[in-house]
TrEMBL record:
The keyword Oxidoreductase applies. GO terms for molecular function: NAD(P)H dehydrogenase (quinone) activity. The lineage of its organism: Bacteria, Pseudomonadati, Pseudomonadota, Alphaproteobacteria, Rhodobacterales. Keywords: Oxidoreductase. Residues 4-179 form the Flavodoxin-like fold domain. GO terms for cellular component: cytosol. This is NADPH-quinone reductase (Modulator of drug activity B). Belongs to the NAD(P)H dehydrogenase (quinone) family. Pfam families: Flavodoxin_2 (PF02525). InterPro entries: Flavodoxin_fold, Flavoprotein-like_sf, NAD(P)H_dehydrogenase_qn.
Length: 197
């Protein structure tokens, strides 16, 4: 297998979490197979995650840490994002990272459009894997919530800037996992990381 340039983003705002464990597990497994991996922890980043009064013509200058992560996105061939689902969405700091960092001229082009009229993506040719944890059972996520967060992340965030396909790994019951579940989850992530998938 040709080595890949992989960005692993631990999207949990806490220092210790399942998301961090999964991110580190994936990164270690991928490195063990010879892939070039950059691992970033959201909890270690300090930035203003409020887009505020900005707009696409007058947005806040990126802090150095945001500029570095954006360069990591541009460098990558494959993105791995680990995150919990909170209140049906992404953690505020992770959403703020996206709001601040995914800017026109770097991640999408409002001056050029796709065939259906959307701004042209500028990070095309990349793939992604999202490892999502929640307390919502999988059947409820599919039937009642209609996978709203999955569709948002896949289509309206990552797909919008060019990451396709985006695959998902979903673990439910994350707050109080049953005995043995975390070990099985970690083993699954290690296999995915070894395959750089």
């Amino acid at each position: 297998m040709q080595p890949k340039k992989i960005l692993v983003l631990d999207g949990h705002p806490a220092d210790s979490s399942l998301s961090r464990t999964f991110a580190e597990t994936y990164a270690d497994a991928a490195r063990g197979k010879g892939h070039d991996v950059r691992l970033v922890h959201l909890s270690e980043m300090q930035f203003d995650f409020d887009f505020g009064q900005g707009n696409y013509h007058d947005f806040k200058p990126l802090e150095p840490v945001l500029e570095q992560v954006l360069q990591d996105f541009e460098w990558s061939e494959h993105l791995v994002l680990t995150t919990p689902m909170w209140w049906g969405g992404l953690p505020a700091k992770l959403k703020g990272l996206i709001d601040r960092m995914f800017i026109p001229g770097r991640t999408f082009d409002t001056r050029n459009t796709t065939k259906i009229g959307l701004p042209a993506p500028m990070l095309s040719g990349r793939t992604a894997r999202v490892i999502l944890t929640s307390d919502t059972p999988g059947w409820f996520m599919r039937l009642i919530y209609r996978q709203a967060l999955i569709r948002q992340v896949r289509d309206q965030i990552l797909g919008f800037v060019g990451f396709k396909p985006t695959r998902f790994t979903y673990f439910a019951g994350a707050s109080y996992p049953k005995p043995g579940h975390v070990d099985r989850w970690v083993s699954k992530i290690a296999k995915i990381g070894a395959a750089a998938a």
